[in-house]
Amino acid sequence: MNLNDKTGFKQLFQTMVGEGGTIVEGTVTSASPLSVTLANDPKAIIPATALSVSKHLTGYSRKASVSGTLSGVGATSGTLTITFSDGLAAGDTVYMLSYNNGKRYYILDRKGA
């Protein structure tokens, strides 16, 4: 199954979710505060208070241990902090799990991520 195919991606998650939840597509209309407009209903704008976001879709930092040889530096080891700054932006297409009778949405991933 091609996960870049909108129908295939949606069907994959829908089979995992089962009854009580639905996979929907939307477009991020604002990154701060976060809001998403449903793909098939431009009047349905989901506010930040009804959204939860997967961590990999936010800007965050993570500690990592490194050891090895760096070009021009030689052997090195230690802990460093890596900052990921590829959070959601206006215009991103996202896939969301709609639950609680459409009152809450969990952003699973972005299209083309």
Task: Please give the structural blueprint.
Blueprint: H1 6-17, E1 22-31, E2 34-38, E3 45-47, E4 51-53, E5 60-70, E6 74-84, E7 93-99, E8 104-110
Parallel strand pairs: 4-8
Antiparallel strand pairs: 1-2, 1-7, 2-3, 5-6, 7-8
Characterization of this structure:
- This protein has 113 residues and is mainly β.
- The longest helix has 12 residues, at 6-17.
- The strands form two sheets. A six-stranded mixed sheet has the order 3-2-1-7-8-4. A two-stranded antiparallel sheet has the order 5-6.
- It contains one helix and eight strands, in the order H-E-E-E-E-E-E-E-E.
- The protein has a domain at 6-57 and 87-110: OB fold (Dihydrolipoamide Acetyltransferase, E2P).
- Residues 1-5 have low confidence and may be disordered.
In short:
It contains 1 helix and 8 strands. The protein is mainly beta and 113 residues long. It has a domain at 6-57 and 87-110: Beta Barrel (OB fold (Dihydrolipoamide Acetyltransferase, E2P)).
Quick tags:
two-stranded antiparallel sheet, 11% helix, OB fold (Dihydrolipoamide Acetyltransferase, E2P), mainly beta
- Derived from helix and strand composition plus strand pairing, the structural class reads mainly beta
The CATH architecture of the domain at 6-57 and 87-110 can be named as Beta Barrel
User: Average pLDDT, to the nearest integer?
Assistant: 83
Q: What share of the residues does DSSP label as strand, in percent?
A: over 45%
SSE order, one letter for each helix or strand: HEEEEEEEE
How far is the first residue's CA from the last residue's CA? 16 Å
Largest sheet: 6 strands, mixed
Pick out the low-confidence regions: 1-5
Q: Bin the helical content.
A: 10-25%
Name of the CATH homologous superfamily of the domain at 6-57 and 87-110: Nucleic acid-binding proteins
State the shape. elongated
Give the total of beta strands: 8
Order of strands in the sheet with most strands = 3-2-1-7-8-4
Structure annotation, total helices: 1
Enter the CATH topology name of the domain at 6-57 and 87-110: OB fold (Dihydrolipoamide Acetyltransferase, E2P)
CATH class of the domain at 6-57 and 87-110 equals: Mainly Beta
Radius of gyration: 18 Å
